[in-house]
Amino acid sequence: MSPTPPRSFVLELARIDEPQDPHAFRFEPQGYTLRTPGGGRERFDIAWSRELLADLEAIRRPGCDARVVQAVGEQLRRALKPAGWDELGRRLHAASAEGPVIVTLRSSAAELYALPWELLTVGPSGQHLGELPGVLLCHEWPGTTTLAECPDPRPEGGRILVAWSAAGGGVPAAEHVRAIAEACSEGHVDFDMSHDVLANASVAGLADALAAAAAAGRPFAVLHLLCHGGLRGGDFGLVFDGADGAPALVDAGRLRQVLAPHADSVRLVVLAACDGGNVGDPGNYLGSVAQALHRARFAAVIASRYPLSVRGSVALTRTLYRALLVDLRSLEQAFLAARAALARDEQHLEWASLQLYAREDDGADTRPCVIRPYRGLLPFEAAHRRFFFGRDAELREVLGDLQALRDADAPRFLFVAGASGTGKSSLVLSSVVPELQRREPPWEAAIMRPGNRPLAALDAALAARRDGSRPFLLVVDQFEEVFTHGEPADRGSFVRRLWALASGATGIDCILTIRVDFLARCGELVLDDAGLCLDRIAYDEAHRVFVARTGRAQVRAAIVGPAEQVGLVFEPGLVDRILADVGDEPGALPLLQVALDRLWSCRVGRTLTAGAYAEFGGLVGALQNRADALIEALGPAERNAARRLLTRLVGIGDDEAVDTRRRVALAQLEPGADPAQAAFRTVLAQLVDARLVVRNEEEGAATVEIAHEALIRSWSRLRGWIAEDRVKLAALAQLTLWVVEWRTHGTLLTGAQLGYASELARRHHDDLDDATRGLVRASQARELRRRAALLGVLGLIATLAVIAVVLWRSSVASEARATDNARIAQDSARIAEDNAKAADAARARALLRARAARDGTRLAAARSLAADGRTALALGLLREVEAASPSAEILGWSASVLETLSKRGREVGTLQGHTGPVTAAAFSPDGGRIVTASDDSTARVWDARTHAPLAVLTGHEYDLVSAAFACAGACVVTTSQDGTARLWDANTGAPTTVLARNVRGEVVAGLSADGARVLVAEEDAARVLDVATQTERAVLRGLSLRATGSGPLAGAFSPDGARVILTYDERARIWDAATGAALRELKGHEGLVLSTAFSPDGLNVVTASTDATARVWDVITGKPLTVLAGHTDAVDSVAFSRDGTRLVTTSVDGTARLWSADASTRIAVIGSWAESIDTAAFSPDGADVITTGKDNTARMWDAKTGTPAALLQGHSGRVNAAVFSPDGVHVVTTSDDSTAKLWEVRSGAELAAFRGQHRLYDPAFSPDGSRILTALMDGTARVLDANTLAPLVVLTGHDAHVTAAKFSPDGARIVTVHSDNTAWIRDAIDGAPRFVLEHDDALQNVVDISPDGERIVTADGAVVRVWNLRTGQPLVASEGHDAAVTSAAFSRDGRRILITDDSGARVWEPDSGVERHAVGPVRAAAWSPDGTRFVTTPQGLGRAFSVHDANTGATVASFAAQPGVIMSVAFDPAGTRLVTGSSDRSVRVWDAQTGAVLVTLKGHQASVNAAIFSPDGARLATSDGSDVILWDLSTGRELATLHGKLPVFSPDGTRIVTLSDRTLRLTWAALAGDDLPPLRQLWRASPLCPSPEERARLLGEEPRTAERSSEACRQMIECIHRRPDPEFADCLAEFRASSTLVE
How many Å apart are CA 1520 and CA 1506, to the nearest integer? Predict the structure, then answer.
């Protein structure tokens, strides 16, 4: 039964005096109003006094007097009583007895948030509002909305960031982290304490952690802040670690600035701090920290109004997260649970202090973490018991039968049998096992599958038992594998051991799950010496539970139950539709789970929709379409590998009905060499990612298997493959059995067996693993030896056989001829087969050449288009180059992609169709459509994503003046110079009505913010019309319009729709929009008033005039507030920023200007053109300004500095308007060239960035490439995720600067060098220090670890020291240096250390402490990869350099001098080349043997001080301290320029890290291949497809080919916008299947 939805009550409060100013508080009795349910307002008063403040301060303290608490609650009740609180409280109390209740307190008076409304008493009982069971009080600041979540829908999971600081005093950090970790563990939510805990948090560290997580695509969903609160003046804030190590009090405003950019991903902020919800002094402008974050559009904030005790904070944390993650309660329910836990503490008032800031519009069931409720093809296990529904009766039967067997002292041996797909395994694993584990005493359990080695698997399962005194459940899942896997001899031994375990006094109970069609084969197995067969047990009702197909009610529970657990709902009728599809389909449960999982991934908000279900093909289509799409996306080699892999994972039965899945060792399947091996690995990874194949570890070896037998039954493609290969698969299975026999008993093949196996090896060589080939070769070798011996015996009797030979000669000759003929036939067939293969190879080479030619054409065309600013079309061609050659890097493709993607303000598409200048454009409220108006007398509605025309609005007789969406986007309002205003259906374009006729003069129109009313002003009249009813709502009276001498010039509604402003001549007038009464006349301009706009809060209005000024006016009084003077010509447009703090004006003088709205100071002057700027507008977030002008461009500017940000060029006529989309991602421009264009505002190719508040040093990848280590000047080092740059560990505990850091070779330890003469050895997982290495002198930035990970070398001053890395003990020191050591590095074998100082380089053997030789003086030195040589470069200009023998020190190669000083030197990974960087800004690559210069690279603007080869030696990264250039060494061409220094390649060479002063950047080192994000980004970057005409012109394609290619592209665009990101591969597969590019 679905839970009862909460009842909702809203307490909307407002101050009577100055209600528009939330902070206009006066410390005196004040009058307020409470909005009644009918919409009216009732007055109440609060007597603000020092006595009241004293009471509030008293209840803030621990152990406060209960009488004061009750008195405050009664005082609040008495205050509200005149406003009808008693009746409202009675209704609320009654509602709480029926179910949950949510009360939303919404106040426009800031001082009211200082009152503890949780203590408000209700009714005669005197109970506080906050202590009523099931009643939740939420606080909401009026007018705010929650920022939409991104991405939508969010993926599974929800990272929790725990950030704590003890700067203000001790905090229970360990207890909080433990409570959250336990909840995550039990709730099966990922939480890694090394990644998700930010210790000693500073504001900068917090910002970095959130930004890095967001950039990595793994943002945090919950932010848990644990620290102390603090008070500065009258404002409360939080105490964090400061940059200088001292405590830093961070106020609400600063914290809002840091956290606000993450409001779209962080859905809950928990402030476990004292006074996190305390607003301080009543009317405080900053408010509380919680309130500031709430107003910054966070979905939910939990805080304590008063001090929070240690015990209370731990109870809050433990209860809240357990309710959210383990009990799967909504945030609202979890908050009530936490409040109840706090109420148990009678010494504190923390239950009433706890606050939840949330919004009524977000609903009563919000969940910050996303839990995936359906399993798809994956099995249900104990971790998923919360989502397993519909088998309660069977669960009771299994538990009852187990207990009955125990009570009867019978063998505890129970079969759970059922047909494939009935959920028998899920019943046992996700219900029976966890149920027994929760009992007292709790059971232990182990789960196994027989596999190929059932006895070994049994031993491993039994080894999991820890306590022999506790009951132990042994689950043998998929028992049928004893018949389909392994050796027959093992079957009997295995079941006899099981029976003995279940029969004896072992305390072990056995449950076996088995497919019902294998029950009959149980008669093959004997259980004991008495001859008892397993079938006797299998058919005994006492030992068997039969799992039948689910009934309708059970299926409904399986559908609805998991959704309700996570707060999801189905669209009406959808559940019944799914039930009808399930019907009597045998084994439908796996298909149902796949469909439901797909439905969940396509959810809209909290709703699972019928549209999504239909789109992916319903019950059957969900599985088959997904699997087919994956296969279709593969190339021929990969597709063959997929077929071979999948069919080998099927156990072939006597017929299709008994085919089963097999678990097979990966080593038995993987081909031994490329390219087959590479194709196999690619396919396996994709099948595992798609959940079609499962990869496991078994006894230290990898195994794979099909995820579920539903694939074998329901995937027609796989069934077809099995049918075609059935004979071969059965034969290969027989070979596998013979291999097991050979390995176990040494049995080789002979006679017919060997002939059969040899023929199979010849026909299906590629399908055999190494073991099978080994068996065949060994058997053939023995047969050859046997034949040789036989020939020797025959030689002894050769003489006696002469007569017989003569007699049989004729017969033998005939047989020989027959044999020769057969051999000739075989040879002919083999030659024909070889010729066919050669022909196929020739065709493949020709196809590759043709593709290469087409790719070159596309690349050249894309470069030309990008140079002309047509980036959208360029991207369209670039992604086709990648799609045509997904596995190869195409010369120049990476650079072109980087350059094009990094263009800001690139064109996304062109809206073509109008035949006259386009004069206006507007987005629909949801941003999904655009309406344009034109001088061609039409308006048009367009799809904002695909740019396709949706409707043409025809009916006006002259040019259109304006067009805008109304009716929540369902209709469009247009005005025209034909004197009419018209209403249209936005979906069909059909005219609905004419709102105004016979309007005299030019029409000025404005639309209210809610789209419900339209203002129509003409020469002598102005009216407000209702859009829905087309009736006249008000006539604006009080001004003779005709007397002004001109018609209206501009008009607008106020944001709340209550007022209207119109401008005429030098004046403007404000009217009441409801009554038409004139309110204020604004006088002061000396020229025509051309433009006007209300501030976002509706309190001010700005006007722009031909007198070269703009003026800001008070709407209430009509008084001028300020004059914006500075333009030298007419000001023709003006606009407020979204937050109302700034203004932008444009002028005929060719400039736009930014102004502060409150101080009226000029912030910046934007641009200077000969032509005038026509319009200007702020972006929704206020960060940018866009302007249009007569130079055919639009320009973007930084709204803070006025500096140019992007130039939008591509129109061929004057750009007359530019409008941001509601989310600020796009801009639409309209032009006199009859087009509208859509532009993307921002883009870039940078993958991630980690930005710190302090200088960064010495980045290094971990040996496995998964982490990056970097040192900071703030005394810490950071371990970052190498894919996302999300902080994993902060290495703290030291105040001195960290000057160097390094991983040990195994990645388990980190060494940090500090400026206080110490080096620290730390654990790389948790950052904990293990040893501190003390030094006598200042440590140099020198640290290296021996390749075996046993020793570390450091240098302090002129002394080099070697330490034991595991114990921290000193081993040996070298003290013979004349100057400070500058570097020290181990050779590859760890036997030598290369040391450099200003006097030279030395090779030192640390074991003996002996210096072998010295070379000097040097500037740089490096080992060769094999450690046999080292290279040194001299100090000074124009010097030669040398390579030396590591054993003797002798020079083995000399290299010519190059201009400048050699700043850096390095060997390539093979040791065959050297690279040097010079102060002459050049890079040279040398042959390490001959000393010849191989290539000289120029492009840097300063000295090259770092140069490294990529791990494969194909690319080179060089740095001049400002920029890093990536080079292709095969061509010497520059691939990309990256900002930063100290480049470091990842171990696999796919990524490169660069470092600037405080920023670490991660970038792809190459852009090619389906596995890299740029391909997805490339398709997402532009929905524009080249038209057939453009393809023919640019690429020379034939008309038919061009049409097919364009259609394939359009379908791809539609697919990627219709499906979620994880299914991008599916869309790409469809594109490649239909595109002529891959034919």
Answer: 7
